[in-house]
Write a structure and sequence with these properties.
- The chain contains 9 helices and 7 strands.
- The protein is of the alpha/beta class and about 250 residues long.
- It has one domain: 3-Layer(aba) Sandwich (Rossmann fold).
- The longest helix is centred in the C-terminal third of the chain and has 17 residues.
């Protein structure tokens, strides 16, 4: 028999409570999601692609006000969970989940008005090919919004290498390198900036490398607020992650 906490959790994982950013159990993911959608206007006729969607919570969040959202990931295990969560917890969202890569998906040119990717680029060996595919499937005037690892503020090289090896990180990006990559592909109005610039964020991330990043529900919310506040007052010009926003030209 389910405990009262489990029963409450099951009830919350239904509309209108689900999906919501506070269902992330990773405090960094809450601010990261907020940055990815900050300033974006979502339209009822949007078609959205989430590259490397994992278990799909952010995919469902992206698709709340869209005509359709598609999440892709090469790993069938999280895709299976995403399909199950969509069916059981958020069937009102027009979502589709496919176990594939952006290179093999076979999407038509100019199929999507927005393309998102949440800390996936650093894991892709040929990330430039993946970015080129994102450009191809975007409609002219469409928006690319992605995050990726920088880890520029991690001052412990041994700990940084542990993270790189454990999570199969193939690339670490700088603001300049990512901006040049996007512009070389053809994107316009490229903006790249760091997030999690504070000492608090650095130490919390280092603790996550040592002990794991997932937290209990209320602690996740509290830590996400502290990360937000700390970034407001941070003076460092580098951060743990990068956010990149770009447009596919119409001409």
């Amino acid at each position: 028999m389910a405990t009262w906490k489990q029963q409450v959790g099951l009830k919350l994982r239904r509309p209108p409570f689900y999906p919501h950013i506070y269902f992330f159990n990773h405090p960094f993911k809450i601010k990261e999601y907020k940055e990815l959608v900050k300033g974006l206007s979502f339209r009822a006729d949007d078609t959205i692609l989430d590259v490397g969607c994992g278990a799909g919570l952010q995919t469902l969040l992206f698709g709340r006000h869209a005509a359709k959202v598609v999440g892709i990931d090469p790993n069938p295990n999280p895709i299976g969970r995403a399909i199950s969560d969509h069916r059981e917890c958020a069937p009102q969202i027009p979502a589709e989940f496919i176990a594939t890569t952006i290179e093999k998906a076979g999407f038509a040119d100019a199929a999507f008005s927005k393309v998102f990717s949440v800390c996936v680029l650093e894991h892709i060996p040929d990330y430039q090919s993946a970015l080129a595919q994102c450009f191809r499937v975007l409609k002219p005037g469409g928006t690319l919004s992605i995050s990726c690892d920088s880890l520029a503020t991690i001052d412990d090289s041994v700990l940084r290498q542990q993270h790189v090896e454990r999570y199969e990180v193939r690339h670490l990006f700088s603001v300049d390198s990512l901006k040049k990559d996007l512009e070389a592909i053809g994107f316009a109005r490229v903006k790249v900036y760091p997030i999690f610039r504070s000492t608090f964020a650095r130490e919390l991330f280092k603790a996550g490398i040592r002990q794991g990043f997932n937290q209990r529900y209320l602690k996740t919310i509290w830590l996400s607020w502290r990360l937000q506040w700390a970034d407001w007052f941070a003076r460092k010009t580098e951060g743990l992650f990068l956010i990149a926003r770009a447009i596919k030209p119409t001409g």
